[in-house]
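hiii so um. not sure if this is the right channel but i have a protein structure encoded as tokens and i wanna go backwards to a sequence. like what aa goes where. can anyone help
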């Protein structure tokens, strides 16, 4: 019987991709048809394979998974993308959905959760872990939104990269912007988060659940 759900895996660690490939292909209905290690290769691989579901890590070298997600959906609006990350804070789940992802899970989730999420997204259903969905529902019900959820997408990306320890020049190169533009973004972020210095900006981001992904797989 032919497998019905084709999957593209996007993660910058080959060992991690191999582990997820083995996990997903235990399901009789899932076949991993391609792999990618950064935003550019993800876009190329998507156009080549046209997978039913793309499993996309947020933290990629250079441009992020959010950038790859937006680029893919600009070309193919119906693309079904499941974002996954080391982050358990709901701000990343909310940002993923706002960017056009169909679902979000963390890398700490049980193995069967990834399979469940891929199959749900393949059916066109949104997927969030129960805890994350509950917290988002409470936040929306109370009409409370953290500052990071209200930031424009580009400002959020710059903040995430600053928290990861990226230099302004590196961020500018990744986002194809000038260093001056990134410095302006940094100033705007300090103002919005009430931070008087770069260190205070990082501290403010940490209080909102945005932490460095160094050491993440």
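sure thing!! here u go:
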């Amino acid at each position: 019987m032919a497998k019905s759900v084709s999957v593209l895996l996007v993660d910058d660690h080959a060992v991690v991709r191999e582990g997820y490939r083995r996990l997903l292909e235990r399901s009789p209905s899932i076949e991993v048809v391609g792999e990618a290690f950064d935003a550019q290769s993800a876009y190329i691989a998507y156009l080549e394979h046209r997978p039913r579901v793309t499993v996309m890590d947020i933290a990629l070298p250079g441009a992020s998974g959010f950038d790859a997600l937006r680029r893919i959906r600009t070309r193919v609006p119906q693309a079904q993308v499941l974002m996954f990350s080391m982050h358990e804070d709901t701000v990343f789940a909310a940002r993923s959905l706002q960017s056009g992802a169909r679902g979000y899970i963390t890398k700490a989730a049980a193995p069967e959760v990834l399979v469940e999420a891929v199959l749900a997204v393949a059916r066109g259903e949104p997927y969030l872990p129960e805890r994350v969905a509950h917290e988002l529902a409470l936040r929306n019900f109370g009409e409370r939104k953290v500052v990071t959820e209200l930031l424009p997408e580009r400002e959020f990306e710059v903040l995430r990269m600053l928290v990861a320890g990226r230099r302004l020049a590196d961020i500018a190169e990744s986002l194809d912007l000038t260093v001056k533009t990134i410095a302006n973004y940094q100033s705007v972020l300090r103002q919005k988060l009430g931070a008087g210095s770069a260190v205070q900006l990082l501290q403010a981001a940490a209080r909102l659940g945005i932490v460095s992904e160094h050491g993440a797989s």
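oh and The chain is about 55% helix and 10% strand.
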